Amino acid sequence: MDETESTLEGNAALKARALRDATGEAALADDTGLEVLALDGAPGVYSARWAGPGATYADNVAKLLREMEGRTDRRARFRSVLTIAYPDGSELSVEGTVDGLITTEARGSSGFGYDPVFAPAGAGGRTFAEMDIAEKNAISHRGRALAALATRLGVTSP
User: Fold this and answer.
1) With contact defined as beta carbons under 8 Å apart, do 64 and 78 qualify?
2) Inside any domain, residue 56
């Protein structure tokens, strides 16, 4: 499905509604973006296709590193928006974020997307790509969004 909305919220809702409409059941969808302060929030909603149509993860990372050359303010955050679209037309949306910095070079081999150049706060300078999956999931934007969703739904952990 084409992500045609101009916000993460819009794309998450678009996808959830399409799945709800196709199945007649409640549907959960997400959209995620990397927001870089020095780039006025870019790549943001365009994170997956920032380097152009058909861009690879490596293409997007290379473009980000070029755009960040010479910049001293390297603050950024990953933000995930989750939306549930219910059959009655109502919706519930939550978000999760993780703050960090854009590194000056790609490091690590785990993860995907911008993980090799995003060093989350509190990780000792390591990038998401330098962490194992359990470490990343414990602090990730998606994990935080899922925790916020569980809270909103009144779900408690065992």
Assistant:
1) no
2) yes
